[in-house]
Amino acid sequence: MPVSELNLQVNLSVGDVAFKQGKQLMFIFWGIILPVIGSFGLIGNILNIIVLFRTEIKSTTVYFLRTLVLTDVGIIVGCILGLSSISVTQLHPDNPAMNYYTHVIYPHMYTPINFIGMTLQFTNVWMTVAVTIERYIAICHPFSAIHVCNQRNTFILIGSISVIAIAYNIPR
């Protein structure tokens, strides 16, 4: 059973009609809607990159936000590459080129794309938590924020989260 059909066979009924409709829905959502929404996300994140990567901005929060925007871009690109490409092949599975992509190329792409996507997602979530904690300390404990929320600690935290994310997702 090919990797691409695994979820469809588990989630859809056994009949051919329901299976074909499931493939069409998969194409509509992953092949059309996901790239359109992802394009808007990429445009928004590119604008964020332009603003956040100006050299005059040196706040510790900006370093977290830079990491967040880069992980967001990676997640969007990974979703488009990983999901949209396989959904296109589901419309014409009898086509030799589509069949070759589904059974030969995609299984080799899936593991690295999944690893990178899950690592970026893990990093993104924990960067959001780090920003929240950093803002909490800066607002609720302003006198200790001077010593805790500095550039050195920010870089250590970003590096630690990245290393933990990679280590956590290696066994997957």
Describe the structure.
The model has no long low-confidence stretch (mean pLDDT 85). This protein is 85% helix and 0% strand. It has helices spanning 3-11, 16-52, 60-89, 96-140, 142-148, 151-169. By secondary structure, the protein is an all-alpha fold. The chain crosses the membrane at residues 27-51, 63-89, 109-133, 154-171. Keywords: Membrane, Transmembrane, Transmembrane helix. Residues 44-172 form the G-protein coupled receptors family 1 profile domain. This is G-protein coupled receptors family 1 profile domain-containing protein.
Topology:
Blueprint: H1 3-11, H2 16-52, H3 60-89, H4 96-140, H5 142-148, H6 151-169
Helix pairs in contact: 2-3, 3-4, 3-6, 4-5, 4-6
CATH superfamily, please? Rhodopsin 7-helix transmembrane proteins
Beta content? under 5%
* Unreliable residue stretches: none
How much helical structure, as a percent, in the residues?
Answer: over 70%
Q: Between the first and last Cα atoms, what is the distance in angstroms?
A: 20 Å
The biggest sheet amounts to:
none
Q: What is the ordering of alpha helices and beta strands?
A: HHHHHH
Calculate the mean pLDDT score and round it. Answer: 85
Return the CATH class: Mainly Alpha
Count of helical regions: 6
Secondary structure: number of strands: 0
**Which structural category do the helix and sheet elements fall into?**
mainly alpha
Task: Quickly count the domains.
Answer: 1
Shape: elongated
| Overall CATH architecture | Up-down Bundle
